[in-house]
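Quick one from the shared queue. A colleague (R.T.) flagged Permease IIC component as missing a structural entry in our internal table.

Convert sequence to structure tokens.
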Amino acid sequence: MEKGAIGNFVNQKVLPPIMKFVNTKAVTALKDGMVYSLPFIIIGSVFLILSNVPIPAVADAIKASGWSAVFTQAYTATFGLIAVWAAVGIGYVYVRNEGYEPLPAGLTSLSVFLLLQFLQIGNPLIGAMGKAGTGITNSAGAVTMSGSQVAANIDKLPQTLQNFLSAPVSGVINITWLGGQGMIAAIIIGILVGWAYTSMMKAGWKITLPEQVPANVANQFTAMIPAGVILAGSMLIYAGLKFTLNTDMLQLIYKLLQTPLQGLSDSLGGALIIAFMVAFFWFFGVHGGLIMGAITSGLLIPNTADNAALYHAGNLSLANGAHIVTNEFYNNFINLTGSGITIGLVVFTLIAAKSVQFKSIGKIELVPAIFNINEPFLFGLPLVMNPFLAIPFFLTPVIVALSTYAVIYFGIVPPLNGVAAPWTTPAIISGFFIGGWKMAVWQAITLLISTGIYFPFAKKYDQVLYDQEQAKTAEKTAEA
């Protein structure tokens, strides 16, 4: 099949159904709604670093001063609430896109998210007791009573008092479900609330007040019936799960959906598919980063949050359940220096390019590449539909994804720590933030990998461009 035939087939048969899916109301709400969580993820990452400075002496001093607990509080109230931001943002955007007052829908989504979970936590004594227990610690983190000592003292109390002290603490919100573990539930709830809310509004299920009533008051009455129906239905779902299965919706979704989906996204196959598809879409002129980001963010962001929680607890390792493929794996490796990891082309233009076209585009791309932007190459060189550079464009992110997965899997570098470096953070600097000095070194190596893969293909393409330019120059000279 010739190049033109392949392009036509992809554009006519492959891309339309994919774009139709990506542009559905649900996926659009997911993509745009998740944006509202980004400031809290990035700001929370700063607090995460401050509460876990990777210099033992400094970390101990911060912990002893009590400031570690303060930074932890800030981290919990920002990054630790990403499921809350997702539930509100997705419900808000869905209804906004349908042309209705969106804030009541976003708040309804939040209310449903809380209503569908047990408002209780396990008693801290359970985790503190026994040989494997954490014991009791002071504000500085020092153990003042071992787990065995706690158990021995509890055993001296009457059984009724023991049962009371070890019972779950009710009337509280379990922050575990407000972070990464509640993300898939938050996405589902946000989408369903947005859909149900707009469906009822379109059907006329609303209270209409006289025109004389102020708009801000009238809007709340307009939202009352859809919100009331959604909350009443959610209450019945909560009651059904509680009385029949002794569980809640968030636990059910986490066990049946989130755990297997996160496992799939965290596999080597998942990493390679994501890396390939970003380049695939871009090659045909469609924003691959945007499409794959919309599809994968609901799974990769929870992976990031899980790693952040482990890092904060000092237990970041694959043995303790850390993920290899996270949102930072996607942003800061698969898309490093831009989709296709095109830093190798930049290096080529600086040291070996002969054609005016390559040199000119290289100068334009140099600064954007530092901040992981490569549209000048994608459309100016171009990389889109360019058979000369197709192989390195597809191959480089796949090789980087494979090798990065391997160095983490075999323990050469630690898992990504959950810190969310903005995608525009320059290479090596972002590596240090998301995984320490070893990850920074590995990121530098990936830049060399890109250069090694792109160089021979770029050299051949540059020669073609140079020959064309020379031919044009000779033609103009002959005409003169």
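The chain has three domains: 34-122+170-258, 125-167, 266-479.
The longest strand covers residues 143-145.
Added to the table.
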